[in-house]
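Standup notes
- DV: blocked on the single-chain target, sequence here:
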Amino acid sequence: MDLMSSTADVGRRLRAFRMGAGLTPEELAAKAGVSRAAIYRYESGKPPKVDTLGKIADLLGVSLPTLLGVGIEYVASAVSFFERMRQLEEDVDQITVMFGPISYLLTTDRYDDLLPKVLDESIPEDVGDRKNAIREIGALMDILKTRKETFRRRTPSIVSLVSAAELDEFGRVGFVGAHNHPSVNLAERQKAARDEIENIVHMLREQPIGVQIGVVIDSMPGASFQIFKRADKAQVAVSPFRLGSFANIRVGVATITAAAEAVQLYGGMTDRLWRKSLKGDQAADFIEKTVLKKRVAA
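- DV (later): unblocked, structure below
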């Protein structure tokens, strides 16, 4: 069973890194000198011999150990990273997340409507690979929407840590991809941010089954992370990528690992932050008084 699970995971990683490289199965097959059907077999959990897999890893710009899931997975593509998150969430029992300013899984559908524009704005006009980056936004949005649909259908329990300081900044600057972008109506984007903050307040007061939100007043880690827990396994993903204001889907290297030490350390940190966080009506009152009312007064 462990071997079957391992080969399935190799197939999932192969799919994620292929997508991050912007290749179709047909294109990867042609480059690797195998048939399209072979790529589909590999991605379905029937990986090739190690020498063939090594050649594919080279074509995708990743190491063989990363593709095999030996040790730490290093992921330099936002598309690959969020596809790996989607895969891990397919059979997870519990998610612990700290992705600022708000966990994507808990955002509204209106957030999805604006996110492609925000991602576009976040890519400077003078970047050499801008056309390719713009093309990747469509693939990324498909992955993200599937993640949210899966989360809503499966309803795994989620513990979301929210930084009060990041919420305040989100409300102040608005849901924007860059400072002073010429095409942005700032008042509209500030309202969009406010709507998401009000949605968090609503969840804090209503406390939907399986959803726990803690508002942290203390200092928070600089990197975003998410812990995936199943009955038989736990993994932690640490990300430089950001989907909120001043989004980043181009620069950085994410990591994914099942190493017991990493899971324990991140788990211990989230436990400490959770215990100190504001919850329920107390957290909702705090946000309304210190974030939302401040925006109205401004």
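- Follow-up: The chain has two domains: 1-70, 72-291.
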